[in-house]
Amino acid sequence: HHQQLQQLYPPYTGVSYQPLPSPTSYYQLTTVGGAGGPVYGETDGNGGMAAPPIVEAPLEMLTLDDLPLSAQRVVPQYHDGITFSLGDAGRELLRNYIKATRRHGVEKRVHQNTPIIELLRLAVDCELWPVAVRLHLEYKGYIPLSPHHAEMRHFRAQRRRNKTRQVREPAAVITRSPSGTTRETIEYEEGIALKLGGEGRKALLKRLREFHELNKDFMDQTLLDHGLKYGEMRNATLPQLFKMAYICGLWEEAVQLHLDHMRRCAERANPHQQRGAGGAG
After folding, report:
1. Contact 152, 93 (CB under 8 A)
2. Chain-centre distance of CA 274, in angstroms?
3. In sequence order, which residues have a C-beta less than 8 Å from that of residue 102 and are 6 or more positions away?
4. pTM for this prediction
5. Which of 29, 44, 46, 228 could disulfide-link 223, Cβ–Cβ 3.0 to 4.6 Å?
């Protein structure tokens, strides 16, 4: 199988791909700069995860022949100026794969802010178009995530969590309505990312979907006006979800989901105190 793929892609003949006995061994591949580079799970010395190693694309990603029929129907055909979504993890992974080809001058042209149009053009130049297509299909959910893609998502999620921990949680304030009732709220700020937990995120997604069912045209246009798309909500970051809630008039509901989550966390952290308070009443 490996020989057949190397015949299909002559530029890769002679590159030292190593057999992959299991998905967990993907990062035993030779990395740019020599073997034994950092792997996922190692720390960077500051308590965070080390940056992913730059590795060559696995051989099985260099062909589209094994795609299921449902995915084959949506495979994009390359043309000058083409652009499609890869997700943050897929984009970073494609950058790494391009760098790992060690083509002359490529590394100077690939950087953190390389536009997706240029990134896809470089993928074609480096014989990595099938890889770019696969990353797109994985991001859209047409095919399962490759081990590299899953690991990159995990790394980026961990990095976001580490950054969030360093940002002080906004304090809730008490507001009083004209009728005299009070409630806690938090003022919206651009980029805000309040903790929701798994249950809270699902609840917010459900509320946004319900709102979309009743106000489809309004919500679609409003999101577009703010650089967002309803179709990408499933993979949205917390700041994006909260922004969607805010511009759709659901901010207070989102805040209450956050406050409910924080109360549950406090109850789990101090179960004896909660029981004691209940008994005293």
Report:
1. yes
2. 37
3. 32
4. 0.46
5. 228
